[in-house]
Amino acid sequence: MPRVGRLIVTVVLLAAVAGGVAFAGSNLSSQPVSVAYTAKPGEPVNVTMQTLGSYGQGIHSTWVSYMTRSPAGRWLHTTTWQVPAHTRVNVTIYQYDSGSPLRNQQVGIVQGTIGDVATLNGKVFTVINSNAGNGVAHTFSMPSLGINVPLYGNNPNANLCPAAPCTTAWPHNVVKFSFMSPGPGTYPWQCFVPCALGFLYGNGGPMQTVGWMDGFMDVVS
Ligand SMILES: [Cu+2]
Description:
By secondary structure, the chain is mainly beta. It is 12% helix and 32% strand. The chain has one helix at 3-29, and strands spanning 34-36, 45-52, 65-69, 75-76, 80-84, 88-95, 118-120, 123-125, 136-142, 147-152, 173-180, 185-190, 214-220. It has a 7-stranded mixed sheet, with no helix packed on it. A hairpin with a 5-residue loop joins strand 3 (65-69) and strand 4 (75-76). The chain is globular, with a radius of gyration of 21 Å. The relative contact order is 0.20. It binds copper (II) ion.
């Protein structure tokens, strides 16, 4: 190959590599932050989240979302959190969205939590009949651990929280449950209600995006 040709090939290759690095970098830096929950040995960690009907700001202001509260009490737009291994995880979810009947009644059943139960506003429940009352808004589901918890909807005619982060002044349901964290690893979780309004069958957009209706539990030793 003539020297000029070799130079051109080298420049093109370097540009491609630089482009790839920049692309990977911008993607990595746009990943939501991870909230670290720590505990003394033998003590539980308390994970607190909220679900809201529309984020209310930014380019995806109409998207449904989860949020996570940091141990310091700040609401962060993330669905990724870190917990210690083999530790009791107490989850509290403030649910601010309306609900609907489920297409798949299976996800109306509480599964995989300690006792296979959860509480809704302080009352123990094992299943939500989504064809009655306000239906189910979202689920918290971690298939690799067999966990599924349906989140009961709010009355759609109520004055629902319009933007993040919602405060308890807005109509809401409080759902609590616990489970034991497994060994170290990364465990994906998500919502199984097709709640993405305006997307095909409700399954696009926030349903496929980490930081909205999908997240990760990082378990560390
Ligand atoms: Cu959802």
